[in-house]
Amino acid sequence: MPAGLPENVYHMYWLKKVKFLMETDTYVTWVLFAVEEGKFEYQIGENYGVAEFGDVVVCPPQIAFHRNVLTPLSFHSITFTLPEGEPQQLKPLLAQRKITLTQIRRLSENYTSLRQADQQLSYSSDNQKLKQHYLADIWLMIAQQALESPDTGPLLEHDELIRDVAIYLIHHAHETIEIRDVAHQFGMTPVQLIRRFKNGYGVNPLQYLTTFRVKQACRLLLTTEWTLDVIAGTCGYENGFYLSRVFRKTMGMSPSEFRKQNRY
Questions:
Q1: 83: pLDDT confidence band, cut at 50, 70 and 90?
Q2: CB-CB contact of 204 with 194 (8 Å)
Q3: Cβ pair 243, 234 in contact under 8 A
Q4: Quick one: CA dihedral 87, 91, 97, 102, positive or negative?
């Protein structure tokens, strides 16, 4: 196994769970909850949050993991060990407990493959190797995110303006947004905004906004029967045709294909 990667102990896929069997649990290994559909709230030490599609929640060994289902939850539970210890470069990101991964197409593909492996109900070495591979790829996404924005935490503590821009983008994601208008509102030129935003979040404002919108579209495709035009309007796009173009470019498949493959 490559150095620094986690070693899978046990993987379980849970479908539309309405309640955790235990609202609080303490594991002897690391544990990762990766959400495909629905929402749950959690508290790990002093860290509280709500996780949904695109989020992975990581809890270290011997720390109480409090959790509560908010909406019917489909998720992957993976217990794992870190044979070489917690990687130094990942400590700031792992300390946040919840990590929102931006490569949602790659993440969705890993989830689909993990789910298919789980449905085989086999503990063969080949099946376990497959699960190990998908866990490693999720871990590599976490590592890549940490490396692409190593100074995110310290920077955003001081660059409150850029944090305010990100909050503005999320709150207005359902509206038509022009980056030049956002820059003007926050007293910057578009070039200044893009540079400072990328320094803080590792992506430019448009990429950040698109990722959020597509993530919302994924959630609505899985949890509602809404037409693509209705989902498009909710996610800030003019019509379903335009959303479909953006969705396919981001996810590598059409919205209808995503809905068909991921609804059970």
A1: confident
A2: yes
A3: no
A4: negative
Shared domain check, 68 and 143: yes
User: Helix or strand or coil: residue 7?
Assistant: strand
Cβ-Cβ contacts under 8 Å for 21 (sequence gap 6 or more): none
Q: Is residue 141 part of a domain?
A: yes
Give the separation between CA 231 and CA 52, rounded to whole angstroms: 18
User: Residue 201: inside a domain, yes or no?
Assistant: yes
1: in domain: no
Side chain identity, residue 99: I
> Is residue 44 in some structural domain?
yes
As a whole number, mean pLDDT of residues 213-223 equals: 86
Contact 104, 218 (CB under 8 A): yes
The string of pLDDT tens digits covering residues 96-143 is 899 988 888 889 889 989 988 877 755 667 778 889 999 999 998 888
Dist. CA 36–CA 56, nearest whole Å = 10
pTM summary value: 0.69
Closest CA to 218 of 78, 70, 101: 101
Domain that holds residue 131: 7-148
The CA distance from 171 to 185, in Å, is: 15
Q: State how many domains the chain has.
A: 2
- Tell me the sheet residues that pair with 42: 49, 67
C-alpha span between 48 and 174 (Å, rounded): 26
Cα 17 off chain centre by: 19
- Is the pLDDT confidence value at 5 over 80? yes
